[in-house]
User: What shape does this take?
Amino acid sequence: MLAQGGGTIVNNSGVAGLVAIPAAAPYIAAKHAVIGLTEAAAAEYAEQGIRINALAPGVTLIEEAAGYLRSVPEAAEAMHRSSPLPRGARPEEIAEAAAWVACDRASFVVGATVPVDGGWTTR
Assistant: This one.
């Protein structure tokens, strides 16, 4: 990217990088680290034309998550109670957010972490 004069990097963190949840300290530390790396690298490379941002997806209904929510109804109910938009994201919704952050329409977005969580982190 330096040789070509710029580019865009979209890192994947997660809502656990924005808020803490019990019994998941190593996972949360890793997600916070992605956000810290995103911010530091964005500050370092923005002047060279490289935009670096991160997404913080919430529950995404890939088969594993969807299967878990079907098999543990209390987890699905807790998710519904804790989010203004009471459902998980479709994978294409996360992809659309990544495409937007990477495109020229987001050209002034640098070093940001964009929650894609149905409003979960607003609670």
